[in-house]
Amino acid sequence: IFFRTMAATDADVRYLVDHSIPVLINSMVEALVKSKPKDVLPFLARWCAQQGSATQYPSLLAPVQLGDLKLKNRCVLAALTRGRSGPTRVPNEANQLYYEQRAGFGLVMSEATAVSHRANGWGGAPGIYTAEMAAGWKAVTDRVHAAGSLMVCQLWYVGRQSHSSFMPNGEQIVSASDIPCAGDGVYTATGEKVPYEVPRPLTVQEIADTVEEYGVAAQFAKDAGFDGVEVHSANGYLMDQFLQSCSNNRTDEYGGGVEGRARFLREVLERVLKVWPAGRVGIKLSPNGAYGGMGSADNTETFTYVLKMLDPYRLAYAQVVDGLSFGFHEKCPQMTLEDVRKVYSGPVMGNCGYTADSAEAAIAANHADCVSFGRPSLSNPDFVERVHNGWALAPDAPLSDWFVMDEAHATDPHLGYTTYPAHAS
Predict the structure, then answer these.
(1) Which sequence positions are flagged as catalytic?
(2) 205-248: per-residue pLDDT in tens?
(3) What residues have CB less than 8 Å from 424, skipping those under 6 apart?
(4) 8 Å CB contact between 173 and 160
(5) Segment 113-132 mean pLDDT
(6) Bridge partners for 150 per DSSP
(7) pLDDT in tens, 378-409
(8) In sequence order, which ranges of 278-368 are alpha helices (DSSP H)?
(9) Which candidate among 42, 49, 326, 392 keeps its CA 20 to 30 Å from the CA of 307?
(10) String of DSSP letters for 140-205
(11) Cα 95 to the chain's mean position, in Å?
């Protein structure tokens, strides 16, 4: 039917033979193994009837190898800070259920996870710097693995977007330089919104200490059963504050030109690589984003340099916030995934504002190897299954459910978190 109605070219035929047909056969075998039907032929008839919508997304739903990570599909659960781990920052039963519900994604990414006490800056966000936290995460990864997916831990240090109320003994917040974050304010540890504070620059010794904190956190992540880690270097957090000239005016070896500004990232990465093989380490970059008061006129030069610097490490992937729905600084041209491909040869993950259709197009055009989905996953824990079967997505989750912003959500961590149902198939 395809050949007759679509005037298939030789390239179309090759794609079907090399890609779509093997994917469908693999999916059929997996369905048989999972369901173990007593009567095979009626089961296969029903299964085949459901595949029409799946063929709309042959690239997105295909398996992919990211370094040492073999994903069952190219849909990735993006890291979303939900604030449901409470004051101890130890993952709990609500966290376990939330991530288990979303194990249909080929790769499940933890929410941003602090690498030390001083790295914090968000109420109820989890950490990965104590044995207790690692044990809490182990219960999460066990359930994700049992549900059939892989999970990586996103290593996070907030920096100037934090507030002194989160710091040990109310210490001053830190950054690359003493440049405060632009914006309408920050939430304190007690939930009050106040103006951003002026950070102090980390000393060279403190930078070395922070590099070591990343290494310790990476080991705790391994102890917790994660399949890998991602170094969060995006969205205006500490690593990004060092990278960009708008937030780094240092004159020592960690400032000045792009080589100096990228030194902190390189040292952190090399410390993490002492714990994890490169094929299980990812990186996240945001060359276009305005979040956290970011955006520099020389970002094209900066991120081109950074991607070239990262290329020889042969990491599992580079996640690039190429979409603009999170805000665009407009201080230099947008860096697209096509631009990334020109200077970075490893697997690329697109992020920010993608739909199933736009993700399929990006992967089919070889602009990305996979795509991470954030907001659609909030109200659609079974996002991948809905895409596969052509089922409509649930309405977007309201902002009130995104984070813990009121007493009701603070009292019940499941509310607006694990309470969104799967599609009634």
Answers:
(1) 237
(2) 999 999 999 999 999 999 999 999 999 999 999 999 999 999 99
(3) none
(4) yes
(5) 97
(6) 107
(7) 999 999 999 999 999 999 999 888 888 778 88
(8) 299-310, 337-343, 356-364
(9) 326
(10) HHHHHHHTT-EEEEEEE--GGGS-GGGSGGGPPPEESSSPPPPSS-EE-TTS-EEPPPPPEEPPHH
(11) 16
